[in-house]
């Protein structure tokens, strides 16, 4: 089962809503790049390049891939004056760039978008294929815990933001268990614009435990070498609800 593209229909709207959300991720990677010999980057599920483009300034070259054409097109537009970064419309479960990278990243909890074990395995196999012996793969995801499995019976207000065109947008969500997949949530999203327009989308998120993720990584010749509760490197505990993993080849 493939992830819906409906939530990623507009690169401009994505940046309007989430453009200021990635400072911790950027700082994490800048620190990693400073202390390791990292000259090349692959950003898998890169979106509009919110992380890729700032990091590219310290690299010889960077590549971002995403399955949404709108996201990739906007990333290309934003980086048109940057010569060392390239974006491609490619699916993480089937891409082959025929190259290896010092650092491969996956942010925005995109790890949870691989709903089936088959798709997760394909993605990890592709990541491993683009690594050399000293490469890093770093990703984040939320962990299975009661608060992430709470359901609602009606649309509830989530947040507001200013759209790309300058309008106020109110965001509402309806959360339910996925009808066929275990440990998976279905989030229906409704955006209400000042001019009366509405946009409805949905996203599905799979929740896997750290042990399950570690086992899956090892099946593909990868191992967790560092674990954190967030991008600020908070110590991971039994009560942590999110996870950042730093991975090396076995």
Question: How is this structure best described in words?
Answer:
The structure is a single chain. The chain has helices at 11-18, 23-35, 52-56, 69-78, 117-129, 210-219; strands spanning 40-44, 61-66, 85-89, 101-106, 131-142, 156-162, 168-177, 184-193, 198-206, 222-228, 242-249. The protein contains six helices and eleven strands. Strands 3-2-1-4-5-11-10 form a seven-stranded mixed beta sheet, sandwiched between helices. The longest helix is centred in the N-terminal third of the chain and has 13 residues, at 23-35. The mean pLDDT is 96. The protein is an alpha/beta fold and 250 residues long. The chain is globular and about 50 Å long. The chain is 24% helix and 34% strand.
Are there runs of 5+ residues with pLDDT below 50, and where? none
Q: Averaged pLDDT, please?
A: 96
Q: What is the string of helix and strand elements?
A: HHEHEHEEHEEEEEHEE
Shape: globular
Count of helical regions:
6
In spatial order, strands of the major sheet run 3-2-1-4-5-11-10
Structural class: alpha/beta
Estimate percent helicity: 10-25%
What's the N-to-C terminus distance?
29 Å
Radius of gyration, whole Å: 18 Å
The total count of strands amounts to 11
Largest sheet report:
7 strands, mixed
Taken as a percent bin, the fraction of beta residues is: 25-35%
